[in-house]
Amino acid sequence: MISSRAENLEFSPIRKLVPLAQVAKKRGVTIYHLNIGQPDIASPPIFLKGIRSFKEKVVAYEKSDGSQALKESLVKYYRRLGLSVVSDDLVVTTGGSEALAMAFFILFSSGDECLTLDPTYTNYLTFAAYAGVKLKAVVTKIDNNFALPKTDSIKKAVTKKTRGIIITNPSNPTGAVYPQRVLSELVDFCVRRKLFIIADETYREFVYGKTKFVSLLSFKKAADWVVLTDSLSKRYSLCGARLGMIVTKNRQVVEAATKLAQARLASPTIEQAAASKLHRVPLKYFSRVKREYQKRRDTLIAGLEKIPGLKVSHPDGAFYLIAELPVKNAEDFCKFLLTDFSDKRETVMLAPAEGFYVTPSLGVNQVRIAYVLKTRDLTRSCELLRLALARYRG
Amino acid sequence: MISSRAENLEFSPIRKLVPLAQVAKKRGVTIYHLNIGQPDIASPPIFLKGIRSFKEKVVAYEKSDGSQALKESLVKYYRRLGLSVVSDDLVVTTGGSEALAMAFFILFSSGDECLTLDPTYTNYLTFAAYAGVKLKAVVTKIDNNFALPKTDSIKKAVTKKTRGIIITNPSNPTGAVYPQRVLSELVDFCVRRKLFIIADETYREFVYGKTKFVSLLSFKKAADWVVLTDSLSKRYSLCGARLGMIVTKNRQVVEAATKLAQARLASPTIEQAAASKLHRVPLKYFSRVKREYQKRRDTLIAGLEKIPGLKVSHPDGAFYLIAELPVKNAEDFCKFLLTDFSDKRETVMLAPAEGFYVTPSLGVNQVRIAYVLKTRDLTRSCELLRLALARYRG
């Protein structure tokens, strides 16, 4: 009855177990949510104040491509990072999600192939399906913390139909951060082969230790080929504000994105007004947040490494990691956590990793863990996971 | 470089002249905006109060398919209209726009045809292009106020590839409201031929005089075939809130829409919290708004009828009408209004109607006029239009 492309859609691996979680909550079980990248960090007070001081009598449409005030605020943000962005390079979108969906539609034709790294951000699969684009994956491995493969392996995956690659840096779901040298090689290759690069850098603020983040927007030679998709959701803990952006020097892409933006009229007005003050958020907000996440990552890894048979990746960024569990099927175990397990009326929710892989049958025994909770809760989560695995296997 | 489907997108006829308007404003010219359906009616105070009293410290993701509180509020709204909607029939979307885009993707496959009436809501063209769907138009005429054609003419437009029809009732851009008898025939035909009906009823509150509005959701026999797309934008003057919804009894459609909703994570959290109180808006809010618009329509038509050579339709609903101008090319004239005309430093902005037609070369001398201003401003707008036409033709 409905279209086969709609029937073939999958429930998000991040959210598909939510109905089971709701049942568990009704039974009185407390759930530690490690399944979803919903930070518990407070949103900047300047944003919340902006929301509360919305004074208009009519909640009217904002400009389709974003309010001028928000664009100017974003320009200031990018310039502080050393990126020479001007207001005309920007189209404000309804979340990073919309920026991604637009990029797939604009850069590729139906039937084209776009490369990605496996495991990948699961929702790319839906945005690609929406645009009729085939995602083809270059596999990365837990054993080297999901490092960006050499350009040679990427070259091998390119076919006549390949028109681009999407790079998530820092990576969701692996937390890997890609170094300058490898990115530079990749850029050279893409420019030479006329491949677009969708650069999803939503997590750029979340890079730990001595690791340096390098934006694909900083490679001048690739200016016409790089389309940055970005979001306020993670860096300001504003997931529910639904504001993102496309940033590119490619004028055709900006024009097409503006036309798509006009068709859906506008992004939320009230949030745009409040977000146009975010360039005033002091740098120490980010360093504090970063310190907090680094501590959480270290706590989580330490906790996970105590669990017999579990293999854990050591990521440098974002707030996710992939763990390989000593079970046959991680999704079955994730369901077990919600339906059959609890300790002192508590359990933990994880995202099965299989849905993050484009390549079939990979990641079946892996989970993605988001470390968006306080360290005490992460420690307890690891303990719950250890107990549950023992009971599940035992 | 970019995809041809993206290159083929058009700027919205409602917004394409905005750059010219900005230049005119910089010259100090005041513009009466009849180009866009942005009501000047105040948004309900209960919504604005909800925004200002947002108390959470983290602006977190809402549920992908919409907050339970908003769904329950919507159920109350539909029940008050006599429609037996339950919470499971609903998926909250980011504006009616997203509901439409989802419907095109879910109901049709790439290459399928969907019927619409010409002139149509211009943004359907982009949503259809997004989904690879071909819109095919059944023409309606200004001479009978753009009445819904007999089912016979619709039958003639159906081909092997036709999988559905989209009905905008009340119509944007024509303001036509379709009567029970003709809708009933259409429903019979669609059910017999297994055609989906996308029912865009965004303007249901705006129906004037003795005209009765009939929802396609009220035809029980078509429950599996009707997908309602709806929006808070117009009925509560909340265009900038970006909240809409898909409503259908078809479980497959609800499930597919939920999956698409999960991919883009969520609709705006703060607006959902505030909107979940909107069922408390008293009925007299709507009757007051309706009276105001009816007065505006009558004022506008009276003003337009005084202009020599201009032909105006007499719509029963929404807040738009189509007028045929005594010029060869209405878009050229609309540009002239912004670039070369002003009277006492004032001018008027209209939407050229050609972009609302799927059929090429129709509507070239027509404009869509939105009557979203106070009657005094509408009277002045008609005067400006008369002066401008005289100068343009003279």
Question: How would you describe this structure in keywords?
Answer:
homodimer; 394 residues; alpha/beta; Aspartate Aminotransferase, domain 1; Aspartate Aminotransferase, domain 2; seven-stranded mixed β-sheet; four-stranded antiparallel β-sheet; 13 helices; 13 strands; 38% helix; 15% strand; globular; Aminotransferase_I/II_large (chains A, B)
DSSP helix fraction of chain A:
25-40%
Count the DSSP helices of chain A: 13
Which H/E pattern describes the elements of chain A?
HHEHHEHEHEHEHEEEHHHEEHEEEH
Oligomer: homodimer
Low-pLDDT regions of chain A:
none
Cα gyration radius of chain A (Å): 21 Å
Sum up the overall morphology of chain A in one term.
Answer: globular
- C-alpha end-to-end distance of chain A: 45 Å
Question: Concise description?
Answer:
2 copies of one chain form a homodimer. With 394 residues, chain A is α/β, with parallel strands linked by helices.
What this model shows, in words?
Chain A is α/β, with parallel strands linked by helices. Chain A has 2 domains: 4-42 and 283-393, Aspartate Aminotransferase, domain 1 (Alpha-Beta Complex); 45-280, Aspartate Aminotransferase, domain 2. Chain A has helices at residues 4-7, 18-26, 45-52, 68-80, 95-107, 123-130, 151-157, 180-193, 251-263, 269-275, 283-305, 330-339, 375-393; strands spanning 30-33, 90-93, 113-118, 134-139, 162-168, 196-200, 226-231, 244-247, 311-312, 320-324, 346-349, 351-352, 366-370. In chain A, a hairpin with a 7-residue loop joins β9 (311-312) and β10 (320-324). In chain A, α5 (95-107) packs across α9 (251-263) and α11 (283-305) packs parallel to α13 (375-393). The model of chain A has no long low-confidence stretch (mean pLDDT 96). The interface between A and B is large, with 77 and 78 residues. Chains A, B: Its cofactor is pyridoxal 5'-phosphate.
